[in-house]
Every structure is written in C-alpha cells, then in structure tokens.
Amino acid sequence: MSASDTSSECDPATGHPRPPRREFKARGSFVRRCEGCNLPELNCLCPYQVKAESHAQVWLLTHPLEHYKPTNTGRLIGDVLAQTQVFTWYRTAPDAALTALLDDPRYVPFVIFPDDQPDYAERVVGMDAVHRAKEQSRIPVFIILDGTWRQARRMFRKSAYLDTLPVLPLHTERETRYRLRKPASKAHLCTAEVAIELLRQGGDETAAAVLDDYFDVFNDSYAASRFYHKIDEPTEAMQRLLARQAPDSDA
After folding, report:
1. Inter-CA distances, 49 with 75, 120, 158, 194, 231, Å
2. What share of the chain is helix, strand, coil (3-state, %, to 5)?
3. What is the separation, in whole angstroms, between the first and last Cα of the chain?
4. Which domain of life is it from (predicted)?
5. Residue 144: which pLDDT band, with cuts at 50, 70 and 90?
6. What does the alpha-carbon distance between residue 128 and residue 210 come to, in Å, rounded to a whole number?
7. Using 50, 70 and 90 to split pLDDT, how confident is the model at 59?
8. Is-contact 157 145, C-beta < 8 A?
9. pLDDT score, position 10
C-alpha cells in the first residue's frame, strides 16, 4: 500500500475530496478489465465467486482514494459476504446511513484497531465480547478502516462518531500473503486478510475459509495478469471454490 499522506487531496473546510485536476488514471488503466470483478479479463475472478453466510458482519469505512485502486481487497469481502456494507470516510461529514446503523440496537459494532496507544485503553475489548454479542442474539459488526496504515490511523483519530465504540485489536500469527502492494511489515495484513482472521476467530469458520480461498485466487490472478500470463490450470484454492459451487456440494 502507498504510505503517502492524502490530506492535501481534501478540502480542509469540509473534509471532502477536492475535484481532481485531471482525470485519475490508475496504473494499468489501459488494461481491459472484467466489468464484474474489475480484474484483467485474462484472469477473470467471476467464475470463482462463492457466497458464504456469517453471523458477524463487516462494515468497511473506506478512504476515498481506495475506491480508485483495483488492488483494493475490501471489495472481495462484499463478493463473499452479501451483508457487507461499504461507507466512504470523510473527516467532517460521516455517512448518515452509517451513523443510523451505529444506533441500531440489533448490532454490536467494534472498531478494528491496534491496542498500541494508552489514550483509548479503556475502550479495548477482546474477542470474548464478540461471542457475548452472539449469545445475546445480537449481530457483531467488524468496522474495518480500509486504507493504508497511515490513512487508517488518521481515520481513527479524526472520526469523532467512532469515539464511543469499543476497540477490538486483531491478534494473530498470520503474516500477509498479499503480493500486489509492498507492506512495511509482514504483520501488516491487507483488508481482506483482516476480515478473514476476524471471521475465523469469531466462529464463522466457513465464511473465513471461503474468503481466504477467494483472496488467494484474487492474489494469484492479479499477479499473473501483471505479466500477461494466463492461469490455465486451476490452483488448489480455485478448485475448492469450484467444488463449493457444485450442486451436490455439502460445503
């Protein structure tokens, strides 16, 4: 992920992005992409899309610039979990739909963020809080700040409407397998990987497994397409997803 600060891209008075000075062109914008999955047509992801059910939901609070990046993995979550919600982050103008949902008693929302600062230590909870919500027949919600690590930290600090929510840090031994952007550390998981581990630890193992395979297919397909290489033989992750689509599949 890019570590550049994007504050200059926004109007300081409103927090909304300034109109672009010229048309935004992502790297590889000349590539013919599938309208369904946005991957290069050479290795379309659509044949491997599989829906999964989960008790927990994922809500993405996405930095405006992430919407333009075809390498963004947040959209993979919505491909697998139909109830995923995506909201665009603005510093001074929170999404009205998001604030309404935060007040909905059906949901127990958690902001996913590291527990590495003392100023919000009293808000930090563990995964046991997620399990308690399920026992109370309420829906746990993982609010993931979808952006670079630098952007996510700014989003966390500058979003007053999140200040009353519990903070759930993700503790995992998983190292990132994401190959499309270079992280500062192998411990820095991409958005889809964060969701996978949260679902797994929260008890939604099947949804986690499906999303994990779908992420691997995305990772491999996009990486191959960068070198104009078509994947002819399905990978193991592809085979597992295809098997889940079979009419007689018990998966």
Report:
1. 12, 38, 35, 19, 17
2. 40, 10, 50
3. 34
4. Bacteria
5. very high
6. 23
7. very high
8. no
9. 59
Reference 52, options 204, 228, 238, 233; nearest CA is 204
Tokens of 241: 């997803």
- Phi and psi at residue 186, in whole multiples of 5°? -65, -20
Q: Cα–Cα distances in Å, from 69 out to 14, 63, 64, 222?
A: 23, 11, 10, 13
* 155 DSSP 8-state letter: H
Q: Kindly state the tokens that stand for 230.
A: 């078509």
Which structure tokens are listed for 177? 């397998």
Taken in order of first residue, the domains within the chain and their CATH numbers are 51-172+182-204 (3.40.1280)
Q: In the block, which residue shows the tokens 């997620």? A: 130
Q: Which helix (H) or strand (E) holds 61?
A: strand 57-62
d(CA 146, CA 60): 6
8 A C-beta contact, residue 168 and residue 109: no
pLDDT at 16: 61
Structure tokens at 234: 């399905």
Comparing CA positions, the residue from 185, 186, 178, 180 lying closest to residue 215 is 178
Q: Is the dihedral of CA 142, 40, 181, 244 positive or negative?
A: positive
